[in-house]
Automatic annotation (TrEMBL):
This is DUF1570 domain-containing protein. It comes from Algoriphagus hitonicola. It comes from the Bacteria. Keywords: Signal. Residues 1-19 form the signal peptide.
Length: 300
C-alpha cells in the first residue's frame, strides 16, 4: 500500500487561546453581518460567505439535545466565514475547519482544505477500504460529512465543558468528552452519520498507523497537536473516537453527564494536578469502576 501522507486533522487548539471575559466572545463578531438571532443561537456571515443551512440545522438540533441532556442553555454564536476571509476572523487556521471557543463556532463557507486533502489522499486506500468509505461518503468521496458536520458537533460539545472550565487534568479527556457528546447526539438523531463517522475512524486509524511515531497518552499530553503533527494527532483522535463509540454503547447519556461533572470538578483551577493513580481513583469514585476502566484502557 502506498504511504498516505495525510495532512488533515481535527482542530482542538482551544488550550492555546487566552480565556475571554465575555461569552460569547463578541470581539470576534466585529466586521461580520448579523443574519439571525433566536433560541440563544446568533448567526453571522462574513462578506463573501452565506449560511450553510444543512450544518446550521444540525447544530441547532445538537444544541437542543445537549441543552436537554446537560440541563443548561447558554448563548452560542455561529460564524460562517469564507475560506478567503478565514484568517481575518477565525481563531486559527486552516481555512474552513470548524473551531470553537468562548461561545463562538467558526464554520467555513466552502469545503475545508482539510476535507479536500483527505478526499485526494483517501484515493490511495486499498480498494476494499475505499469501497467501504464510498458506501458512506459517496463516490466521489465527500468528506464534508466528517470534517464539517461531525467536527462542528464535536466543537459544540466542547462548549458545554468550556462554559464552566477549561483546564482539564488531561487533554485527552477533554477531547474524548467532546467526541462522546457528539457520538450520543449522532447515534440518537442521525444514525446514518453515526455509522459513517465510525467507519471512517476505523479506516483512518488503520491507514495512519504505519506512519506515526507516538502512540502513548503520555505523549499526547506532552506534545499535543504542535508536537505530534497533524497525522499523529489525528490518529489519537481516531482512537478516542473508537473509545467514545464504546462509551456511548455501554454508558450512554448518563456516563456523558458524569464525565462532564468530573472534568469540571477536577479542573486544574480547582484541584491539584493528579498523577495516574490519583486520576484512576478519582475516576473510579466518580464514574464507577467499569467506566474508569474503559476510559483508561489504551492498547498502545
Ligand atoms: Zn476537540
Amino acid at each position: 500500500m502506498k504511504p498516505l501522507p495525510f495532512l488533515f486533522f481535527i482542530l482542538c487548539l482551544a488550550n492555546f487561546i487566552q480565556a475571554q471575559s465575555t461569552w460569547p466572545d463578541i470581539s470576534k463578531h466585529q466586521g461580520l453581518n448579523l443574519v439571525s438571532e433566536a433560541d440563544n443561537i446568533t448567526v453571522f456571515t462574513s462578506e463573501n460567505a452565506q449560511v450553510d443551512d444543512h450544518t446550521l440545522n444540525l447544530l441547532w438540533d445538537a444544541k437542543r439535545y445537549f441543552d436537554q441532556v446537560f440541563g443548561m442553555d447558554f448563548p452560542v454564536s455561529i460564524l460562517f466565514v469564507s475560506n478567503s476571509e478565514w484568517n481575518d476572523y477565525a481563531y486559527f487556521p486552516p481555512p474552513g475547519m470548524p473551531q470553537a471557543w468562548a461561545g463562538n463556532i467558526f464554520l467555513g463557507n466552502e469545503k475545508s482544505i482539510v476535507a479536500i486533502q483527505a478526499e485526494q489522499q483517501l484515493q490511495n486506500l486499498p480498494a476494499e477500504q475505499l469501497k467501504e468509505l464510498q458506501s458512506h461518503f459517496g463516490d466521489p468521496l465527500n468528506m464534508d460529512l466528517f470534517y464539517r458536520n461531525n467536527v462542528a458537533v464535536h466543537e459544540l460539545g466542547h462548549l458545554y465543558h468550556f462554559f464552566e472550565a477549561s483546564k482539564p487534568q488531561k487533554r485527552w479527556l477533554q477531547e474524548l468528552f467532546a467526541t462522546y457528546a457528539a457520538r450520543n447526539f449522532l447515534v440518537k438523531s442521525h444514525p446514518k452519520m453515526a455509522k459513517a463517522t465510525a467507519a471512517y475512524a476505523e479506516v483512518g486509524s488503520e491507514a495512519h498507523f504505519p506512519f506515526i511515531k507516538h502512540t502513548s497518552l503520555e505523549k499526547f499530553e506532552e506534545l499535543y497537536l504542535p508536537g505530534l503533527g497533524a497525522q499523529n494527532y489525528e490518529w489519537f483522535q481516531f482512537q478516542l473516537f473508537k473509545k467514545a463509540v464504546k462509551l456511548q454503547e455501554k454508558f450512554g447519556e448518563k456516563g456523558l453527564i458524569e464525565l462532564r461533572v468530573f472534568l469540571i470538578q477536577t479542573d486544574l483551577t480547582e484541584t491539584e494536578k493528579m498523577d495516574y493513580a490519583q486520576l484512576q481513583n478519582q475516576l473510579e469514585e466518580q464514574l464507577g469502576i467499569d467506566m474508569a476502566e474503559l476510559l483508561l484502557s489504551w492498547g498502545y
